[in-house]
TrEMBL record:
<dbReference type="InterPro" id="IPR050595">
    <property type="entry name" value="Bact_response_regulator"/>
</dbReference>
<protein>
    <submittedName>
        <fullName>Response regulator</fullName>
    </submittedName>
</protein>
<dbReference type="InterPro" id="IPR011006">
    <property type="entry name" value="CheY-like_superfamily"/>
</dbReference>
<dbReference type="InterPro" id="IPR001789">
    <property type="entry name" value="Sig_transdc_resp-reg_receiver"/>
</dbReference>
<feature type="domain" description="Response regulatory">
    <location>
        <begin position="10"/>
        <end position="126"/>
    </location>
</feature>
<dbReference type="Pfam" id="PF00072">
    <property type="entry name" value="Response_reg"/>
</dbReference>
<keyword id="KW-0597">Phosphoprotein</keyword>
<feature type="modified residue" description="4-aspartylphosphate">
    <location>
        <position position="59"/>
    </location>
</feature>
Length: 127
């Protein structure tokens, strides 16, 4: 478990699928403070309040404001440019999509994902 200033490190999770949100909560809640948002719009609103997560896990495909738009806005903002991002997606050719994005993605995983692999990726990114 990672501790920051006497508190658990925080992860912003952005996904529109309730089953994925429940799974991620089950896997990660014991070790991290989780902030759950069901859309990119909700995530941006939360971040604009001055919140600063240690890591962001985002779905790629969401209605209205998808993961790509969310991450592009964060990386352009400057303030969140160095916040690690893990992209989750059930999209075909995810590796190719990530490679063609005009901004850096720290890690990505295809759904369904291996929980142990996800936890390992998180630990590597926010040690």
């Amino acid at each position: 478990m990672e501790i920051k200033n006497g508190h658990k490190k925080s992860i912003l999770i952005v996904d529109d699928e309730l089953s994925i949100l429940k799974l991620l909560s089950f896997i990660l809640a014991a070790d991290y403070d989780l902030i759950i948002k069901k859309s990119g719009i909700e995530a941006i609103a939360w971040l604009e309040e001055g919140n600063d997560p240690d890591l962001i896990i985002s779905d790629l495909m969401m209605p209205y404001f998808d993961g790509s738009s969310l991450i592009r806005n964060l990386k352009i903002s400057g303030f969140y440019r160095n916040t690690p991002v893990i992209l989750l997606s059930g999209a075909e050719d995810l590796a190719e999509k990530v490679k063609n994005m005009p901004f850096k993605i720290d890690s990505y995983m295809e759904k369904p994902f291996n929980p142990a692999t996800l936890k390992s990726q998180i630990a590597q990114l926010i040690t």
